[in-house]
Amino acid sequence: MGKRDNRNVRREKVFSLNGDSKDVEWQYFRSGGPGGQNQNKRSSGARVVHHPSNARGESREERSQLQNRKIAWRRMVESPKFRAWLAIEVSSRPTPEELVDSDMKPENIKVEVFENGEWVEKTFGIRRSTAHYKCASRFDH
Q1: Where does the chain hold its CATH 3.30.160.20 domain(s)?
Q2: In the chain, which residue ranges form alpha helices assigned H by DSSP?
């Protein structure tokens, strides 16, 4: 089978959170228990805390800290506290359409026009003039 063509698939990033965020705190500890010297001498256990939701994830099962980090992250994002926080956070954000509508208000649109031998910035919506402005590039003199 060939590669799947995803060019026509609509993708929206609703929310983004990564492990380096200021809202996330990582803690490492010695796992203890069975697993030999590696778990007793190295900090292979991992705990992640997401402060806004107070959600936590922890793992100490694996010998590798990286594997324990992945498991702890998954447990944190699958926790009921995080899911409840995420539902509220996503629902309170404006939709992409609302963001475009607010940004495209006439008072937010600025245009530069070539007037009297110099480029002048014009803002639409604040003062509308009856003068006709020709759209010109900076290279048309």
Answers
A1: 24-91
A2: 37-41, 65-77, 80-91, 96-103
pTM of the model: 0.55
Residue 120: what are its φ and ψ, rounded to 5°?
-125, 135
The fold adopted by the segment(s) 24-91 is Double Stranded RNA Binding Domain (3.30.160)
Q: Which of 12, 19, 24, 21 is nearest to 94 (CA)?
A: 12
pLDDT digits (tens, 9 = 90+) for 92-127: 888 878 888 887 877 777 788 888 888 888 766 544
For residue 25, what are the β-bridge partners?
49
Q: Which of 58, 77, 57 is nearest to 16 (CA)?
A: 77
- Between 15-19, 45-49, 70-74, the lowest mean confidence (pLDDT) is in 15-19
Using DSSP, state whether 83 is helix, strand or coil: helix
Contact (Cβ atoms closer than 8 angstroms) between residue 42 and residue 65: yes
Separation between Cα atoms, residue 133 and residue 101, nearest integer Å: 24
The answer to whether the CB of 58 falls within 8 A of the CB of 72 is yes
